[in-house]
Specification:
This protein has a single domain (about 1-105), classed as Double Stranded RNA Binding Domain. It has about 120 residues and is an alpha+beta fold. About 40% of the residues lie in helices and about 30% in strands.
């Protein structure tokens, strides 16, 4: 699974980067065959003033097309990353399940055919 980490502050602390990688693997590894790329963006809205301003935004690009996005703001980087990875893991699972269910419904449904004379047949 390819992933990238970007921050509005430039360089990211190596411990935080390792934490992000560990949490992404935990949340998304079972879907790795269906994921093309994961982008993680970290932003500190207020700078050093503090508050609930540390935002973690995760964008999962799926191989079949489409994106799954989760964004969380919190007081602490680790908590924001934990909540965002959990959320994006659940959302990715739901999205892929919907896609599977849609394919099953169309593949397994009986075909209704109308004959040349207008008579209906299964």
């Amino acid at each position: 699974m390819l992933w990238s980490l970007k921050s509005d502050r430039g360089k990211v602390d190596p411990r935080l980067s390792a934490h992000v990688e560990r949490r992404l693997r935990f949340a998304l590894s079972r879907f790795s065959g269906r994921i093309r790329r994961v982008n993680v963006f970290l932003a500190d809205q207020n700078g050093p003033r503090g508050g609930i301003d540390k935002t973690c935004r995760i964008v999962v690009r799926l191989r079949d097309g489409g994106d799954v996005v989760a964004e969380v703001s919190d007081v602490d980087w680790e908590i924001a990353v934990d909540r965002a990875t959990t959320r994006v893991g659940h959302s990715t699972g739901r999205d892929l399940a919907r896609r599977r269910a849609g394919r099953r419904a169309t593949r397994g449904a009986a075909s209704f055919v109308t004959g040349v004379d207008g008579a209906a047949a299964w």
